[in-house]
Design goal:
single chain, mainly beta, Immunoglobulin-like, Methylamine Dehydrogenase, Chain H, six-stranded antiparallel sheet, four-stranded antiparallel sheet, 3% helix, elongated
Length: 542
């Protein structure tokens, strides 16, 4: 089989089953910064809630005392090349002691929603809407339940002109509920109130476009997530009920809803099962069918059931240059100390989810509960540690991790007919403008045989021609070249990828682009006539 034919076949191969055993770490993450409140005080619990989108991030400190004892506050940050910059500290426009403003957070575009449940008080909870204009935040509306409900505001979400506020606990005989508000063009008005007698209905809520999901993480009966579809401006109709494949204690403790993806966290506390995160694909237009795509958990879930894996969860949608990602917090992980916490990052490769990083705080300490809240902010992962003790006891902190430009190996090479493993490697730094080299090599190959470096903007690991195809279509390739002379497996290939970028042959190769690359080689005695190296992921710098 000619190498050119093989490469053409590789360029059109469809995604298939992903072998998680074959996949290696794809995403290098490094700590960008640690955020603490500039006016941090003991017990504020900065980082108890997070919401982020693009270059904006909101951090909740629901026990802040500026507006009253445990009245709460939130901090708004924007991201630039210099890191995260504090824009504003916001307190409740209607503050009250033990109001816990900032206990829950959501953001979409320039609209932010802040939950203020009266968890330890006696008054009704509420939620507040703010709008961002430039770098200034202004109060827009106070959202209240139809009748007093202490836990109203325990969870919130926003999508476009729709806000959902959850109130799970039964108070004064009223069942858990979720209230939907809609922006009329001039003000936020109640659209409908959803309720159920199911245990803890409204503990987690999510909205995306015209779909609302409310969980009922019952402890003694089957938990569920109820799906509602908007059928008129103020009318929502139940379209599906999702139940877990396995019954944990708190399935639905956390939830994240995105473009065709749902993630549901399940926290286990009593040793009768395991903690995990379930992922589902769904039709954004109808929300009628949800297909289980992932059942994510610790490597040894039985021994980790008390880690609270899935206590928090966040999604990042796929882009032209990256796959969809998910982060799940495990705040009671005992990594270096009791309940210091951990966060697990996954990426979507083909139809499956693959864990690509475990994040921990560099200054982790006992009972920090790192992972109590998680969020994606553009190219960063934010992780809250609401009980971190610096600068004061339980003042809290948030850690921001960014994707580095260090090239990373993943996938598994196909052995050639001499029993050698073609190995990809790189030297230098990938750059869209630097005059220095970034050389992508392949060693341990058959001498003098043709080879080609092909690349794409995504990772996948699918069985292909006796090996693994590790790069997702659409694919491009550099010019074919012959391996160096030698004997046995002494052949090698080299391409200066920076020079290839500078040639302008592929205008899409600009700073900020994530590239996944792999070598295809000619192997005449192979059943398919071809070989495959492992793969290399790198980020093109400026």
């Amino acid at each position: 089989m000619q190498l050119a034919v093989f490469v053409r076949a590789a360029l059109v191969v469809a995604c298939g089953f992903v072998s998680s055993a074959a996949a290696q770490s794809l995403w290098p993450w490094s700590l960008e910064t640690k955020l603490v409140a500039p006016d941090a005080d003991a017990g504020d619990r900065f980082g108890a809630a997070l919401a982020a989108q693009g270059a904006l991030a909101l951090v909740g400190a629901p026990f802040d005392d500026q507006a009253g004892v445990d009245a709460g506050a939130i901090y708004a940050y924007s991201h630039s090349s210099g890191g995260w910059v504090l824009e504003a500290k916001l307190v409740s426009p209607a503050p009250r002691a033990q109001g816990h403003f900032g206990y829950s957070l959501a953001i979409d575009a320039n609209v932010a929603v802040v939950g203020s449940p009266s968890l330890l008080g006696t008054t009704s909870g509420d939620a507040f809407v703010f709008r961002r204009n430039g770098s200034a935040w202004t109060f827009d509306a106070q959202l209240t339940p139809a009748s007093p409900h202490r836990d109203f505001g325990s969870t919130v979400d926003v999508s476009r002109d729709v806000v959902v506020v959850g109130a799970p606990t039964i108070v004064g005989g009223s069942a858990g509920l979720a209230r939907i508000f809609r922006f009329s063009g001039t003000s936020w008005v109640p659209a409908t109130t959803l309720s159920s007698s199911a245990s803890k209905y409204g503990l987690s809520v999510a909205v995306y476009d015209k779909t609302v999901i409310v969980t009922s993480p019952a402890t003694l009966v089957a938990p569920s997530a109820v799906v509602y579809q908007q059928i008129a401006p103020n009318a929502w109709q139940q379209s599906a009920t999702i139940t877990p494949p396995f019954i944990p204690q708190l399935w639905g403790r956390s939830i994240a809803l995105g473009d065709g993806i749902l993630a549901v966290g399940a926290v286990q506390t009593n040793g009768l099962g395991i903690a995990y995160v379930d992922t589902f694909d769904y039709d954004v237009q109808s929300s009628g069918g949800f297909t289980l795509t992932g059942h994510l958990h610790e490597d040894n879930p039985i021994s980790h059931y008390k880690d609270w894996f899935g206590d928090s969860v966040a999604l990042e949608a796929a882009t032209a240059n990256s796959n969809a990602m998910l982060v799940a917090g495990a705040p009671r992980e005992n990594f270096t100390a009791k309940h210091d916490g951990m966060a697990h990052v996954y990426t979507r490769i083909g139809p499956n989810w693959k864990r690509v990083a475990r994040l921990t705080a560099p200054d982790a300490a006992q009972f920090d509960e790192f992972g109590s809240a998680v969020a994606f902010a553009g190219g960063s992962v934010l992780v809250g540690a609401w009980q971190h003790d610096a600068p004061a006891q339980d003042s809290g902190a948030v850690y921001s991790y960014g994707l580095t430009s260090v090239p990373t190996l993943y996938c598994t090479a196909k052995l050639n007919t001499l029993g050698c493993t073609p190995t990809i490697s790189a030297t230098g730094s990938p750059s869209a403008s630097a005059g220095s080299s970034f050389v992508v090599d392949c060693t341990n190959t058959l001498p003098e045989k043709l080879g080609v470096l092909f690349y794409g903007g995504g990772a996948q690991i699918v069985p292909f021609r006796g090996g693994w195809l590790c790069v997702k279509a659409p694919l491009e390739r550099a010019a074919a070249l012959a391996a160096t002379s030698g004997s046995f497996c002494d052949g090698s290939y080299s391409v200066d990828f920076n020079a290839y970028i500078a040639s302008g042959q592929d205008p899409a190769l600009v700073a900020g682009t994530i590239v996944h690359s792999q070598w295809a080689t000619r192997d005449p005695l192979d059943a398919w006539g071809s070989g495959l190296s492992d793969a290399l992921q790198f980020l093109i710098g400026p």
